[in-house]
Amino acid sequence: MGSTESSSAPPPHPEHHPLTQLWVRYRQYRARVVLAFVLSTCRKVMDVMPELLIGAAIDVVVRGSDSFVATLLGIADRRDQILALAVINAVVWVLESTFDYLAALTWRNLAQQVEHDLRLEAYGHVQGLDMAWHESRATGTTLAVVNDDVNQLERFLDTGVDKLWQLALNVVLVGAVFALSSWTLTLLAFAPIPVIIVGSLWFQRRLEPRYAVVRAAVARISGLVSANLGGMSTIKSFTAEERELERVREASEAYRLANAEAIRASAAFVPLIRMAILVGFTMTLLLGGWMALDGRLELGLYSVLVFMTQRLLWPLTQVGEVLDLYQRAMASVRRILALLDERPVTLPGQRSPASVSGRLELRDVSAGYADGPDVLHDVSMVVPAGEVHAVVGPTGAGKSTLLRLLLRFTDPRSGQVCLDGLDLRELTWEGLRGRIGYVSQDVFLFEGTVADNIAYGRPGACLEEVVRAAVQAEAAGFIEAMPHGYDTHVGERGVTLSGGQRQRLALARAILRDPAVLILDEATSAVDNETEAAIQRSLAEVSQGRTTVMVAHRLSTVRHADRIWVLADGRVVEAGTHDELVSRPGPYAELWAVQTGTQIGTMADAEVG
After folding, report:
1. Of 242, 307, 360, 440, which is most buried with the most CB atoms under 10 A?
2. Where's the ABC transporter domain (predicted)?
C-alpha cells in the first residue's frame, strides 16, 4: 500500500507548501511523476510543430527551390517538398496522438493511485485516533476530508498539473521560435505575459481565502446531512422535517454564497486576459505584416509568427481555470494534512501475552474527560479471572467511564488498570482488545448479512460456528424465521431489526470471538422479560470460565453475579453479592426495592444505566 511505503519518508515540515509535503510523503511515485512530465513535454513539442510546417509550406510556395525545406532536405521540386512536409506532418500527428495518450494515461493513473493511497492513509490515521477525538468531531466533517477533499486533489492531479506544465512549455517553445525570428516581435508578443502573470497571482491571492471558506461550507453540509440521515427516526418522531430541511437549506445557501464569491472573482479573469491577448496579437499582426511587406521578414516566417501568437497567448486564458482548480485542491490538501497531523493520545504498548486468564484490577484510579473534572475518584476494584462482576449505579456515577478504561478508549489520570497484573498501557491493541468481547448499549451492525455481522468478531468462522454462537445468544429463533435466514441482509446499521434483535446479534458476535474477557454494557436493555431470561441463561453458560463485567439497568440481570459494585458520584460506595447487598440498608437495597415494587420511595428519580 502506498501509505505504508510513504511512512519511511522523512516527515515534511508542516509549514512547507502542500505540494512539497505531498512530494515528500509520496516519494515512491517520483519516477512516475518525472515520466509524466517527459511525456507531456514530448506531446507539447509535437503540438507546436504543425504551425512550423504551415510556415514551411508557405515558404515552399513562395520561394520554391530557395525554400528552407529545399535547403534542409536537398529537394528541389516544389511538389516533392510539399510531399515531404505532408509525410512529416503525418508523423508529427501520430507522435502527438501517441504521446497524448501515454501522458493522459500516466497522469490519470498517478492521480488515481495517489487518491487511493491518501484516502487509505487518512482513513487508517482516523481509525488510530482516540475515541475522545471522534466524539468531539462531527462525523460528516471527517467524511468530507476523507472523501470529498481527497477527490479535489485527484481532480487537480488528473488535469491541473498537466495543464500548468503545458502552459509553461508553450511559453518556452513559442518564445524560442519568436526569439529566433525577431526580437522586436518577441518583445511585443510577450508584453502581455507579465500582465497576465501578475493578474493571475493577484486573482490567486483573492481566491485562496474564498476557497477555504467553500471547503469549510462543504464540510458543514456533509456533517449536517450525515447526522440527519443517522437520526431520521428522531426527526420523524418529533415532526422536525421542516426544521431540518431549513437547517440544510441554510447550510447549502452558505455554501452557494461562498462559491458565488469565488466564482465572481474567477469569472472576471478570462475577460481581462482577453484584452491583454488582443494587444499582443494586434502588434504581431500589424508590425509583422509591415516587416514582411518591407522584405525584412520572410512571408512563411510571418505566417508562423501570426499563428504562434495565438498559440502563445490564447492558452493563457486557461490560467484562471487552472488556478481555480489549484486553489480548490490546495484548500483540500491543507485540510487533509491537518487531519494527518492529528496525533492520538492513547498509544498501544509492546507486550502481547500468549495467554490471558482475564483477571482485571483497578488500582486507585481517577479518570475524566478532556479538561473536565474527574468522573472517577480513587476507584479500586478486583475482578478475579473467570468471575462475573456487575457495575450498577445512578446516571453519572461513572459506569461508562469505567468500561472505557477497561477497553482503553481512555487512560486514567492517575492509578492503574491492569489485566493479569499488566498495566493496560503496556499491551498491544491485539493483546488487549483482541482478548475482549464487547457488547455496547448502542449496538452497531454493518451493512451485510446476519452471518457477516456475527462473524465480524472472528473473520473466517464457518457457518456452524456462527449458528452455534447465535443459539447461545438466543438469536437463532428469529434469524431462522427471516426470509433468507443467516443470509438475510440487515440494512445499514441494522435498521431492519428491532433493538432486542440487534443486541442478541451483538452478543452472538462477542460470543463467537471466544474472548477471555466479556464486557456487557446494558446488554439486555432493549429486550422483553422473556428474552432477558433467555439471555441470562445464555450468559450463565458463556460466562463459565470467562471473566465477565456487566453494566446493567435491570438489577434482575445482575443478581446472580459473583460480585456487584455500586458506584455513586464516581466512587465505589458498596460491593458484595446480591443477597449481601439487599440484606443491609444502602443504595443497592433501595434501588432493588424501587425496581421490584416493594417500596415506593424517594429513589424514584435515581436512574440506573
Report:
1. 360
2. 360-594
Residue 405 or residue 9, greater confidence:
405
Q: Quick check: is 355 in a domain?
A: no
Residue 260 has pLDDT above 70, yes or no: yes
- Kindly state whether residues 405 and 460 are assigned to the same domain: yes
Q: In what order do the strands lie in the sheet containing 436-439?
A: 436-439, 517-521, 547-551, 388-392, 563-568, 571-576
Q: Which element (helix H / strand E) includes 235?
A: helix 232-237
Cell of 391: 457495575
DSSP characters over 27-58: GGGHHHHHHHHHHHHHHHHHHHHHHHHHHHHH
318 and 384 co-located in one domain: no
State the residue range of the domain holding 553: 360-605
How confident is the model at residue 6, as a pLDDT? 40
CATH number at residue 371: 3.40.50.300
Q: Are residues 334 and 372 in the same domain?
A: no
pTM of the model: 0.71
pLDDT of residue 318: 73
**Closest among 352, 360, 365, 345 to 416, alpha carbons compared:** 365
What pLDDT shows up at residue 7? 41
CB atoms within 10 A of CB 154: 22
Q: Provide the 3-class DSSP secondary structure of residue 352.
A: coil
In Å, what is the CA distance from 87 to each residue of 61, 129, 260? 17, 63, 51
**Grid cell locating 313:** 497567448
Cβ(392)–Cβ(608) below 8 Å: yes
* Residues 6 or more apart in contact with residue 354 via CB below 8 angstroms: none
Nine cell digits for residue 21:
509535503
- Quick one: CA torsion of 154, 159, 160, 166, rounded to 10 degrees? 150
Q: Is residue 586 part of a domain?
A: yes
Burial of 357 (0-12, 13-18, 19+ CB in 10 A): middle
At residue 344, the 3 state secondary structure works out as: coil
